[in-house]
Write a structure and sequence with these properties.
The complex is a heterodimer of chains A (about 80) and B (about 130).
Chain A lengths: L1 E6 L2 H6 L3 E5 L6 H11 L11 E4 L2 E2 L11 E5 L6
Chain B lengths: L1 E7 L5 H6 L9 E8 L3 E2 L2 E10 L1 H18 L2 E9 L1 E4 L3 E9 L2 H18 L2 E7 L2
Parallel strand pairs in B: 1-5
Antiparallel strand pairs in B: 2-7, 3-4, 4-6, 4-8, 5-7
Helix pairs in contact in B: 2-3
The chains are: A alpha+beta (about 80), B alpha+beta (about 130).
């Protein structure tokens, strides 16, 4: 299945792209997708533990099961205000 | 509870926001909080902050926070404006208004909203340093 991945804030600078696509097996978890992204962009491993993860507009845990077409976002801690 | 939310690249027009205020006859407290861009960030002088927002998710997360507030306190209305893009020093990046019958719930809701925003709402800042 295909899912899209968006990077926000300085993650975009580290990866040098705002968005990528992953081809993943069925029943892949969000945590597995995060690992796949780190394999593709090793620079993100330094921020692995502080990375916030969302699918669509909701935060999701690592064991969230992804579906075809999901839009994943990875980003650093937020800083509004 | 009435809510109004805006994430905008326009400068925050506080005069307009105050003119546009609506209060019921039972409202006894109006709390307004502004977040202002300081001239220092982590000890480094800056002249602005460039705010980036994941708008769709930011709006959704703000709405969830508003729902949490509505469950916890008897609040009449919440209005929030967050400016994005480049915000110069000494200008507001955030404007929040809470209206309630009494000050205690208005202050509590305002504190909760800003605390939750800072952990849940996907907005980031990039300080712009002086040349």
């Amino acid at each position: 299945m295909k899912v899209s991945v968006k990077f926000w804030s300085y993650f975009k600078e580290h990866t040098q792209c705002a968005e990528t696509t992953l081809n993943l097996p069925e029943n892949t978890t969000l945590g597995d997708a995060h690992s796949a992204v780190i394999d593709q962009f090793p620079v993100l491993i330094e921020m692995k533990n502080s990375t916030l993860k969302a699918v669509g507009v909701e935060y999701q845990p690592d064991d969230f099961i992804l579906s075809e077409g999901d839009e994943i976002s990875f980003f650093p801690p937020v800083q509004g205000g | 509870m009435k809510t109004q939310l805006s994430i905008t690249s326009e400068a925050i027009d506080e005069h307009f926001l105050i003119t546009d205020r609506e209060t019921s006859v039972s409202a006894g407290a109006v709390i307004v909080f502004q977040g202002i861009v300081r001239n220092m960030e982590d000890g480094v002088p800056i002249n602005a902050i460039d705010y980036e927002s994941f708008n769709e998710m930011a709006c959704h997360q703000f709405e969830l926070i508003f729902e949490d507030i509505d469950r916890q306190w008897p609040i009449e209305s919440v209005r929030l404006v967050h400016r994005i893009g480049v915000v110069p020093v000494n200008e507001p990046s955030l404007w929040v208004e809470i209206i309630a019958a009494h000050r205690s719930e208005a202050f509590a809701a305002c504190q909760f909203l800003i605390d939750e925003m800072k952990v849940r709402v996907p907005i980031w800042k990039q300080p712009q340093q002086l040349p």
